[in-house]
Amino acid sequence: MKSFQELKLPVALEKALLAMKFETPTPIQAQAIPVAMSNRDLIGCAQTGTGKTAAFSIPMIARLLRAQGRTALVLVPTRELAAQVMEVVRDLTVHLPDIRSVLLIGGASMQAQSSALRRSPRILVATPGRLVDHLRRGGVSLSKTEILVLDEADRMLDMGFAPQLNEILRFVPKARQTMLFSATMPPDIQKLANSILKDPIKVA
Ligand code: AMP
């Protein structure tokens, strides 16, 4: 893929990319977006600064537009990264008022997040600990999750989030698309990938 036009994206996404001044796909976007648009699971070896956020967000939003009532869950290790991902998601959905998104991070009001959850957001960007808090209170349903993204998966494991990830995965449907991004691929990430991805395509 050499240009975003080749993807025949929904017009609202094309307009958003223009406004964001994303003209040429970065290498990870050029590799990952066509794979993700074909609904395949994906494992991406990519660091921050490579454009990986749009690499998973563009196909995720395109799929949500085709899948009425379904949702996407993006798990990230830190609040800062969650806020960065959310900014890209909001920029990409600026012309899509029906695709609401919510940020579920620690250190922010549970109540405000709970009321945002009641407005049926289609995209949840969350740190694992806070999402588990919402799950335990029954304030969030993940049963409509069509796309699961694990961003900076190596950092999530380094930060000790494996138990929370396992708890969250029990609530996410098995029939879904999963994308895992990690800067490094140590054995524990390979193991995680083997257990949650189906026949993934690897891009680096
Ligand atoms: P990320 O690796 O997702 O954190 O993105 C790193 C930076 O690259 C961000 O500031 C993005 O706005 C920018 N960026 C991502 N994709 C593109 C693109 N296709 N064209 C221009 N800038 C981009």
Please outline the helices and strands.
Layout: H1 11-19, H2 27-37, E1 42-45, H3 52-66, E2 71-75, H4 79-92, E3 101-104, H5 110-118, E4 123-126, H6 128-136, E5 145-150, H7 153-158, H8 162-169, E6 177-182, H9 187-196, E7 201-203
Parallel strand pairs: 1-6, 1-7, 2-4, 2-5, 3-4, 5-6
The structure holds adenosine monophosphate (AMP).
Residues 22, 24-26, 29, 48-54 line the site of adenosine monophosphate.
* Whole-number mean pLDDT: 97
CA-based shape: globular
* Gyration radius, in Å: 16 Å
- The sequence of SSEs as H and E is HHEHEHEHEHEHHEHE
Strand order of the largest sheet: 3-4-2-5-6-1-7
Number of strands: 7
Q: Low-confidence stretches at least 5 residues in length (pLDDT < 50)?
A: none
Structural class of the helices, strands and pairings?
alpha/beta
Number of helices: 9
Ligand list: adenosine monophosphate
Percentage beta strand: 15-25%
Helicity range: 40-55%
Main sheet properties: 7 strands, parallel
N-C termini distance: 15 Å
